[in-house]
Sequence to fold (850 residues):
Amino acid sequence: MTKDTSFREHHRNESDDGGEAAVPSYVASKTLHSQIDSSVESIESDGRIHFAVKSDGDDILDHLGLAPNMIKEAGQANNAKPTTSPDCTRPPKMAILMLAVGSRGDIQPFIALALALQRFGHRIRLATHSLFQPFVEEYGIEFFDLGGDPRTLMSYMVENPGLMPGFVALHTGEVGARRKTMQGIIYNCWHACFRSDQIVLHKHMNIGSNDRRKDVSPKVQRPFVADAIIANPPALGHIHCAEALGVPLHIFFTMPWSPTKEVAHPLANVRSNDNEVKQSNLLSYLLVEGMIWQGLGSIINRFRFKYLALDPIHPTKGPMILHTMNVPHSYCWSPSLLPKPKDWAENLAVTGYTSLDALNNYAPSSALVDFLAKGSRPIFVGFGSIVLGNPEEFLVLVRKTRSILQTRMVLALGWSGLEGDIQESEDLFVLRDDCPHEWLFAQVACVVHHGGAGTTAAGLRAGVPTVTVPFFGDQFFWGDAISRAGAGPQPIPYKTLTAVSLSQAILSALSQDVVACAKTLGARTQSEDGELGAVENFHACLPNKSLCCALTDRAACWRLISTTTLLSPLAATVLRKEGLIDWDKLELHRSVNYDIVHGPYDPLSGAAWAVTDLIVDGFRGMGEMIAEVAHVPIVAHRATKRSLARLKEAKIGQNPAATTTKQHTATKAEMATHKHIGGYMLTGILRISKAAIRAPGAFTSAMAQGSHDMPRLWGDTTVRPTTSTTGVRSGISNGCKELVLGVYDGTAGLFVQPVTGLINGGLLGLAKGTAKGLLGFPIKFFAAANGIVGHPLRGIDVAISRALKSDGMKAIKTQRMLQGEYEFAAASETQKHEITDKWYKLVDELGGGP
Fold:
């Protein structure tokens, strides 16, 4: 058995050519990139995208619908305010899930933030790689394993930096292996939202682990369901899990990920003249996220469709989804190094560097203390989590540099791959164990590192000059930022690094001006409280009114049916045990609705999207019916072989018990490989039938959505946001709205658009407004005609699909009930009486009913 057998066995029906339900195919052609007049000139050796952009960035982003705020608090749709606690202006105590993917430098800020949130009474679960489990639990934080090995990823990134892999990686299957790893991580993002243990986790973990222990972390036994999610962008399941659960999402990251005109995306290398630089910077974010979606969009859509029972996202809507949803972000770098861009909204904050209070517990080795005390301050050299391709060559370079400078050095091995006995000297100390950067950097004269966000923060806070040797990705970005701030020389890419160039950079860093600048910057960054800033921004962006329980200071998860009364697990359990409510009167509460728009930008691509999906279903069904023809003789042939084998064993007098055991084992293996006779035929017939039944609704709803959004392409700002069709009722509602408002907007546009254009742009604006009105008139009527038919049919389709497959909500309800029982057992009698007293008071205030 190969190491990834367990994953393939679980997902053999979830591959691109298998499964009980087809995921609409991922169409990559003519997507976002075709809407931009840009040229990707080259992929740099460091993996960054080198490109030039000539289009108007504002118009393109407006076409993509980035302006409207599409996050809605639950209850706003029907203008009903939830009945909550009078103290709901303050955030309630919540169970917060943190999703963090990356190296140690990416995980450490989450630990610092988790400790700060715990001081406010929140329960924190940090889901990340198993490699960091001891690191996380050392600080008393609940751990959940997302799978994946960051060391393998770092080694891959050094060989294939950036977004575009090399030919060797494609040829050897490395790209496919990384896709499988990301698929496992994305699936485990959902498990982390509500599992109280990890019984099934290892079927998806690190794609290939044979370890199926019941629980990797014995401490994770208390029932858990996320009331909010904090994640970094590489944990790609974040927004989709938040949409399925109906909970707030907050992004917490170490580098810019939100579009701005002031700086380009850290993974893009933009070339433009002075007049185009702002637009190029803005569009670099769209291009980078578009390329990420090209590679992983099919995995994400399969995850949404099969695991979360959510509609797949159209390729034109996948990139920039965090920004179309106006998801709040907290960026943990110092505004002294990189101020918050002026074009960022209020929900995007630069909160400052975070730091862990590890110094009190750290005891350095006596050898390190002696080395630091014997002479002048040394130079620190270390690349942290980077896995070097040729570590011995790097060691030779370090020795040559030390010889040229005649200075003392501390060489940190990290994940470099250097092993064995490395000869030390009076001027060279080899640091093999972990050592807090905050402690060590305060003892050195200059730091030489790879430019990772965490190491950059430690160097700046220590107030020492920095020499950056970037390998890939955002390391170049931070190296340039340090150089612009005057705290170090220009970064030296590792592939061009020599002993001479490194020596010159260190001498430059030790100049009087750079040392003074580094000290000033260090004093500023040390005065910042990044953890508190991130907590305050997180709390400020929460929809408190739809989060608070009406009876406790905890987050609400239940709503009394046909009312606006919100209850926490503890409150609901107390009231049920007192006989005041029944479980069948409660439904899961959604504190936030992320109304993700799934459709295309024009009716033609919408029709193509729907037709392609139906054709794929049809051909798969025919393929399964044809497979039945080959399936029958195979099963018959193997059954004959088993019968002959049994006769032979009987003749030679083999133990009957052993023979029976072998037969049972062989039968189980056969059943695992083949369906029963007629199984493929039945599956194929059902698949073709489903495609035929879905065809009218899928076609007309896709045409309606495409027609609805099409006026955005010529800058029509009157296009209304749409809401998702989640069932029959919402389908009928959306169809009626599309009919009425489509006819109204199409007719009104003939008059409103020219007048608006005249006011804003004079005669030229009048001409443009008239053109927009004339173009929009037939398109909006067409959307109305298709919407009144397509949306109700789509609602019926969604309702039937959800009735036939699980969307995970049953497991969530069970966990919420268990959570209530757990909290009830831990609650005091005083707390229980307070809940019932508040209930009676609430009933009286509402006139006899909640």
Summary: The two ends are 58 Å apart (CA to CA).
